[in-house]
Amino acid sequence: MTAYRNPFEGQREPLTPELVKAGFRQESAEFGGVLVNYVRGPEAGVPLLLVPGQMSLWSSYRKVLPDLARRFTVYAVDVRGHGNSSWTPGDYSWHSAGTDLAHFLREVIGGPAIVSGNSSGGVLALWCAANVPDHVSAIVLEDPPIFSTEWPRFRDRDRWVYGSLEYAVRAFGDIESRRPADIYRQEIPIGEDKIIRMPDRFVDLLDRLVTRYQRRHPGRPASLGVRWLPRSLDEMIRAVSMFDPDFARAFVDGRFYGDFSPEAALRRTTCPVLLLHANWQRFEKHGLVGAMDDDDARRVRALAPQTVYRRIDAKHVAHDDKPEVFTTAVTEFAEELINSGAIEGARRR
């Protein structure tokens, strides 16, 4: 595969006033030639590492960071292939991305941390618990595709998510000509024969706004550049513009999986586990629309009996959709572990 670099690697942008007030700062660390971009909060308690999912940035946690920083020493990263971290075309797998986090836990945090991951970030949290247990005090699995991304189930049974990644590869594979607003042209099933998608005229408007912004701000991540549209729309467009499509391609062609076994990893995991299970649906035509079904959740608990299970009424990225629910769940989980002596507590602000 032709090598190319992330044009935004190492760039830093001003943090929001809310994050500055909460004491956050943006930093980076390099491990074996891979730059990992992250933000960290003030020393405030038990270390908490937040790992976003595929095509998401650390900033997806912006709603929960200030509140979490009152109780934890918070770190939120851009996974390789995302944001201001390095792109590593041809080298994306659970092992390579997990190894970055292992280095981060050892060399940046320097002590056992709670690792909370959303979606594929949840699988990476599990990878850490199984492979570097001395550096993981507990894990939070926020709607992770623990079994639904196993090969060949991912390709043959749960086809909608697989098809979404195929779309990402097609739409954004040409880095020079991709149009980030096209992410909103994807179709989402809500029934066997019913789908929803944004109207083309609206997506065309978003595309024009992005084009105008990029013309005025060359060399910067994409943005809508307006305040009269929901911030969530801009967040996704920005994330897509900073995403290496080979990360998605590695899922589509099977490279990402390597020899990683979620079942074996769960069996090896001895630390406390919190499983947050968001909304999902299953359709005969599309397969699983979501990250895990109830059978998957039961299987996690059977393989790791120490798992605390919480079914939550939230979208897949629960920390953005229901930030208070996410913050409360993580905080109560950690406080119970501290009070029971399962993990070591630390000073609060």
Task: Compile the SSE list and pairings.
Blueprint (H helix, E strand, L loop, with lengths): L16 H5 L3 E7 L2 E7 L5 E6 L13 H4 L3 E6 L16 H16 L3 E6 L1 H12 L4 E7 L10 H4 L2 H14 L15 E4 L2 E3 L3 H17 L14 H11 L3 H8 L9 H7 L4 E5 L3 E3 L3 E3 L4 H10 L3 E5 L6 H4 L1 H18 L9
Parallel strand pairs: 3-4, 3-5, 5-6, 6-9, 9-12
Antiparallel strand pairs: 1-2, 2-4, 7-8, 10-11
Helix pairs in contact: 3-4, 4-10, 6-9
Structural summary, described in words:
This protein is α/β, with parallel strands linked by helices. The strands form 3 sheets. An 8-stranded mixed β-sheet has the order 1-2-4-3-5-6-9-12, sandwiched between helices. A hairpin with a 2-residue loop joins strand 7 and strand 8. Helix 3 packs across helix 4 and helix 4 packs across helix 10. The chain is globular and about 55 Å long. The mean pLDDT is 95.
